[in-house]
Amino acid sequence: MKIKIDENLDIPIYRQVASAITGEIKRGTLEYGHQLPTVRQLASKLGLAKGTVKRAYDDLEATGMISKARGKGTFVSWQEETIQSRKDRAMTAIDQMLDLMEGLRFSPTEINIFLDLKMRERLQREVLVSIAAVECCPETQSMLVRSLYELQGAEVFRKDLYETMHSPEGVSASADLAVTSLTHYEQIAPLLGEDKTFGAAMELTPESIAVLSRLGKGRLGIFAGSERFAVLAKGAAARYASQTVFVFRKLSGDETDMSVFLRNLDIVVAPAGIMRICTKREEDLLHEFAKEHPVCEIAYRVDAGSMLYLSQRVKELALRKRR
Known about the structure:
alpha/beta; Rossmann fold; 4 domains; 14 helices
């Protein structure tokens, strides 16, 4: 496996490892059933902590890229679906449908009429524009996706920034448009082309500003799933929570014990939905902390101007697809 780690990238190391392995699998370098190195072996080869590699493997398992067999090892479980396999499955589904309709005593002519009617209905449906939400950290990506769901006529899926940079052809083939924050536009546009890339301005939501502004005086800590969002949260707290004193930040799953992190804090600022990405122990300790101290969850969204331009772009793409 060719795994290059760039510590200057604003992307967690474990995600770089996971994205690199995903790229190797989808390019066919690592085929279905291939046995991967153990966590210890790969950590030693890359000069990383075992916990970092384990977290990368856990992410890959969660996305269906790999599977772990107790006592046997870790294996590639993702298979690219070939045209032939899709055709075989389609023909089987059609046979099953025809058997059912014949069982209901419809004639071949009637079945043909029904199929023609349903195909006409489907062709008249709205054409959907496929949008890839490309971001470097899970928090901002989730917030970007939430904004994009408001667009009419669009279907949205997530794409990792690091994977996109290493395999841009994957996004080009699967998406009509890639949307990323202005921070990463200059990285993505040269790879996909300006006509297929949109840089959206992200802003702190009014609710988040209100919550931060109401925070009382105290020692504030940032808790997030990624370094990138921790930096964003620190900037937001410094701007709007003027009476607080920033102490330090912690990322979910790092080696610092959560109880130690919370011990000297009066306030915690975290991304909205933090409970979905932290460990069970971290979740329990945060709930306990919240009984006596504020836990301020903040979120970003695509600003109104960007949404207006993006909505128009989606309409233009849908019109082009109809032709």
